[in-house]
Amino acid sequence: MDQAKELLEMPRQFLKDGRQFITRCSKPDRREFLRISQAVGMGFLIMGVIGYVVKLIHIPVNNILVGGA
Question: Which GO terms describe its cellular component (predicted)?
Fold first, then answer.
C-alpha cells in the first residue's frame, strides 16, 4: 500500500517542482540577451578556429603518413 502511495506521489511532486521552476523563470531583458548571444557567438568562433587549426595540421600530417608508406 505504501509503495502505491509513493508511486502516485512521484508525478505530483514532479509537477509541483516543475510549476515552481516555471514561475521562477523570467524572460531575459535586452542587455542580458545580448550578453548571452555574445558569449555563445564567441564560443562558436573559438571552436571554429580550433577545428580549423586541427584540420590544417591534420591534412599535411596525413599526407606524409599515407604518402610515405
Answer: nuclear inner membrane; Sec61 translocon complex; Ssh1 translocon complex
Cα separation, 60 vs 68, whole angstroms: 12
Q: Is the dihedral of CA 11, 13, 14, 16 positive or negative?
A: positive
Positive or negative: CA dihedral 17, 18, 20, 25: positive
Q: What percentage of the chain reaches a pLDDT higher than 90?
A: 59
What pTM was computed for the model?
A: 0.57
Burial 4-40 (b: 16+ CB within 10 A, else e): eeeeeeeeeeeeeeeeeeeeeeeeeeeeeeeeeeeee
